[in-house]
Amino acid sequence: MIAAVRPLIEAAEITFGYRRGQPVLVGWSGSVARGEIVAIVGKSGSGKSTLLYVLGTLVRPWSGTLRIGDHDVSHLGDRGRSDVRAAAIGFVFQDALLDPRRSILDNVVEGAVYRGDDRAAAVARARTLLERYGVDVESSRRATDLSGGQAQRIALARALLGSPPIVLADEPTGNLDRTNATLVETALFEHARSGAAIVVATHDEALAARCDRTFRLS
Ligand SMILES: Nc1ncnc2c1ncn2[C@@H]1O[C@H](COP(=O)(O)OP(=O)(O)O)[C@@H](O)[C@H]1O
Ligand SMILES: [Mg+2]
What we know:
Blueprint (H helix, E strand, L loop, with lengths): L8 E11 L2 E11 L4 E5 L6 H8 L7 E6 L2 E2 L5 H11 E4 L11 H12 L3 H14 L15 H13 L5 E5 L7 H16 L3 E5 L3 H6 L2 E4 L2
Parallel strand pairs: 3-8, 3-9, 6-7, 7-8
Antiparallel strand pairs: 1-2, 1-4, 4-5
The structure holds adenosine-5'-diphosphate and magnesium ion.
Adenosine-5'-diphosphate binds next to helix 1.
């Protein structure tokens, strides 16, 4: 028997907020399939980042159901959710959020090492991705004094290192010039076309228009 193909991300009737009685998302439902790239759009403060935090299991919804693949993750505790993130989700934020005390290479392989992947294999793949994304600074040096573009290329390598089936990106090109923005967008689209589910919160109408679908928040 062939199992029904479920969306990779499936959210139903999600309500979440930061303060009691002040929900940011109310009864939000949506799903993202494998191979699909979906934009979240809406004015500032409409909850785009919050929705990414919910879909990424960084926060737990007050009510509603979130499924990642075959698993209902809505009720998992912190440890269970961090395992889900390590196994399945790559994040790209507007700022690269690199650890300046560590080397570029250590920043990129951090998630893989946390997961228990073989370090040498992770390092080899990290070098390949850094080269692919045109990071032309020595990867053994500390992740400081980088341009915004270089830092985001490094963050992209970190997010895609383990080929996660889900990538969540929050205004990933918001601080970048056109050249760097195009590189980041191209990498996200390629990753979607290789079978991943991608969700990107963006102000960029042109980017949203090129995505397969749009979630509009108000
Ligand atoms: N960590 C937080 N604590 C309290 N309120 C927050 C927090 N993050 C966001 N908010 C509030 O949630 C609402 C949605 O914010 P956000 O998800 O950042 O929107 P967007 O990304 O669309 O600009 C806003 O009213 C914002 O002030
Ligand atoms: Mg935001």
